[in-house]
Amino acid sequence: MKNSKGLVKLQKPLIKWTGGKFKEFKEFKSFVPNFDRYIEPFFGGGGVFFALNPKCNSFANDKSTDLINFYNQIGNINFRTELYKFIEVWDLIKKFSLITNSEILMIYDEYYNNVIEKDDVPYLVRAVVLTHIDNHEYEKLFDNEFLIDFDNFVSEIVKNLISKINRIANISKKEQRNFNKEELGNHIETAYKSGFYIHFRTLMNKIRKCELTNISNEKFLAIWYIVRELCYGSMFRFNKSGEFNIPYGGIAYNKKNLKQKVDAIFSEGTINLFSKTKFFNLDFEDFINEIKPISSDFMFIDPPYDSIFSEYDQNSFSRDDQIRLANLLFKSDAKWMLVIKNTEFIYNLYNKKGMKINSFEKVYTYNVRGRNSRNAKHLIIRNF
Q1: CA distances (Å), 295 to each of 35, 247, 298, in order?
Q2: Domain annotation covers residue 7
Q3: Helix, strand, coil: what percent of the chain each, to 5?
Q4: Which residue in 119, 71, 349 sits closest to 224, CA to CA?
């Protein structure tokens, strides 16, 4: 693929995944050797895979069952259909927000100016939403077959609108700040889209816990993908009950071009790239033993970091796992390269005879639970 200047344009990963190395590829691409087969035991978003665009047979593995199921659905017409339903509805939410905007703003103004009581807001907001539901133009937005739980969807929309009205009013009074109509309109759209997101996040959690059945695999994975795209920072975090609990990305996410992202999933480039790729959902050691890498193979290793917080999509990775990985790599005949954040433990683990170690600096965009400093040194470790 080439851009308007005739330069080769790298195909981006289909999904953002914690620890992805697509942007960092330039730091270590010069070390990549020639190879006959490409092997990746910790695939995630596949940043290096997409940057390399291997033309040979490739083998990709990840412990996340949902992620591998997602990749295996590429090319599935039913999965494509389910995803494009979300694209259509995502656009309808903005339109629905616009037609109710003046009425919601009137409720806000009356509440802010003490014309109505706080207890009046829920009833009035719900009435506005329900008044426009029967509009034929928004039939697909409120289709129960798509929503699965119509009542919960409406409830989340109303709940988020009420919360937004209260929050903006409180900020305005506390900071003596007047929001203009455009700002208020953007906040109303955010409330609608947050309600949409939380509704499907709830469904995803229920399906995971088997509280909601008879949902097709394609439908679940479409929900899973949309939730991942719209959650704040594309992070994935679960509470003690095993429920995913990251909030909506916020006002900046309102303009997300989901169609462009979904188009990329089913593009000719993606289909061609994946045509020679086989996916696995195994422990990394089982995967490597299954593939049996040889000297003409190249393995790119991007494991979870050595930190207190080393759990991705509910899969933990301990220091014992780091040692198990290192011992497996030391015995491998394949050329391999590992890129990982530097810690004393990791450096000592790989600082052995025959290993080559380089480094580069990485700046983190997000700092989840303090697990990353804004700047961190990363090691490039290889056996060739």
Answers
A1: 9, 46, 8
A2: no
A3: 50, 15, 35
A4: 71
Maximum CA extent, the chain: 77
How is residue 100 written in tokens?
């109710």
Q: H or E segment at 49? A: helix 47-52
Domain CATH number, residue 33 = 3.40.50.150
Query: pLDDT of 50-108, one tens digit each?
Result: 999 999 999 999 999 999 999 999 989 999 999 999 999 999 999 999 999 999 999 99
Burial class (CB in 10 A: 0-12, 13-18, 19+), 161: buried
On whether both 323 and 312 belong to a single domain, the answer is: yes
The residues, any chain, with a CB within 8 Å of residue 45's CB and separated by 6 or more, are 13, 14, 15, 16, 17, 20, 22
Judgement on whether residues 219 and 140 belong to the same structural domain of the protein:
yes
Domain-terminating residue out of 260, 290, 307: 260
272 and 206 fall within a common domain: no
**pTM > 0.85:** yes
Asked whether residue 96 falls in the same domain as residue 243, the answer is yes
